[in-house]
Design goal:
Layout: H1 3-8, H2 12-17, E1 50-57, H3 69-75, E2 79-85, E3 90-96, H4 110-127, E4 131-137, E5 142-148, H5 151-165, H6 177-191, E6 197-202, H7 209-219, E7 223-230, E8 243-246, E9 251-254, H8 259-282, E10 287-291, H9 296-303
Parallel strand pairs: 3-4, 3-6, 6-7, 7-10
Antiparallel strand pairs: 1-2, 4-5, 8-9
Helix pairs in contact: 4-5, 6-7
């Protein structure tokens, strides 16, 4: 594929090479102060390692390295700290490859950027020792890939993303976006019963009140992060005397250089974004915004509070 073609359709070789850029960001509990995953509004993400469980009297056979000398001196009796090791965590990516993602104004399609973000996260997850699985979905189908931890597994996962990505084409009429979006969430509810980290990568098209209920149910026993992929053109219309817009079936022509049209469009979009953000905050779901212009790895590092390098 040429570089220009890579901007329209994702390429497995390019997604595989992203493993070398999947660094300097993490989904572990401890986050930089300026990370979107830090702060009181966001719950601590479960990680792997040792968790303090209790403080108790020393028993013959206990590891002396676990002694709590401060408590021992204060009470006059030997005490030890007891730790339990956390289990490996399953990370599930919900990768959106619906018709609404097949859009890009100048650089890359949202669908390509979504594939890149998913690849970066998948490579990073296995590098830090957790298992990664995925639910790759389009307007009509969804494919579940069970969580495993190996490079070959990530390649297989990305090949499924490529398969669905290459089915996208202009003029394709999508089904009711709420139906496909909510079907994905319902399926996640069946797969992720508890203690998983779910990362949705897509534009959130079709989210409605039912989606909020499904997310609330998922959020009760899992952690969720939403990565919203957007194109700058979606946030501000270009000023054109004649603009033609089509959904693949119907089309409309209008003037976008009219100030009233611009204002109404921006107000409507602002209301949608505000609603999306409020819903995410209410459910304590971190929301990362990734555009189609800057490199995905650079944006991920910035969102996670790391310095660009």
């Amino acid at each position: 594929m040429t570089d220009k073609t890579h901007n329209i359709y994702a390429d497995i070789a390019a997604l595989t090479r992203l493993q070398y850029q999947a660094k300097e960001f993490s989904f572990k509990p401890k986050q930089p102060v300026n990370s979107v995953l830090s702060g009181k509004q966001i719950s601590k993400l479960r990680g792997r390692g040792l968790n303090f469980e209790e403080l108790r009297h020393y028993r013959p056979g206990d590891d002396i390295r676990s002694m709590d000398w401060k408590v021992t001196r204060r009470t006059g009796k030997p005490h030890v700290k007891v730790y339990t090791e956390e289990r490996e965590r399953n990370v599930y990516l919900a990768i959106d490859q619906r018709a609404s993602m097949f859009f890009g104004s100048s650089k890359k399609m949202k669908s390509v950027v979504g594939a890149e973000v998913a690849a970066l996260i998948a490579w990073r997850v296995i590098a830090t020792g957790d298992r990664v699985g995925a639910l790759v979905f389009n307007d009509h189908n969804l494919k579940v890939i069970n969580a495993k931890r190996s490079k070959q597994h990530v390649v297989s996962l990305l090949n499924e993303v490529i398969k669905q990505n290459h089915r996208l084409k202009s003029g394709h009429v999508e089904q009711n976006p709420s139906t496909s979006f909510n079907s994905m969430l319902a399926k996640l509810g069946n797969i992720c019963r508890h203690d998983a980290l779910i990362i949705y990568v897509g534009d959130g098209n079709g989210r409605n009140d039912k989606s909020t209920d499904l997310l609330k149910h998922l959020r009760q026993h899992n952690e969720i992060i939403a990565v919203k992929v957007f194109d700058p053109l979606e946030r501000k219309l270009p000023e054109m005397s004649q603009m033609l817009v089509s959904d693949g079936r119907y089309q409309i022509q209008f003037s976008s250089d009219n100030s009233k049209t611009q204002t109404e469009y921006e107000l409507n979009l602002a209301a949608q974004l505000s609603e999306y953000t409020k819903a995410a905050n209410k459910l304590r779901i971190p929301l990362l915004a990734i555009d189609t212009i800057s490199p995905a790895a650079q944006q991920l590092r910035k969102a996670m509070g790391q310095a660009n390098r």
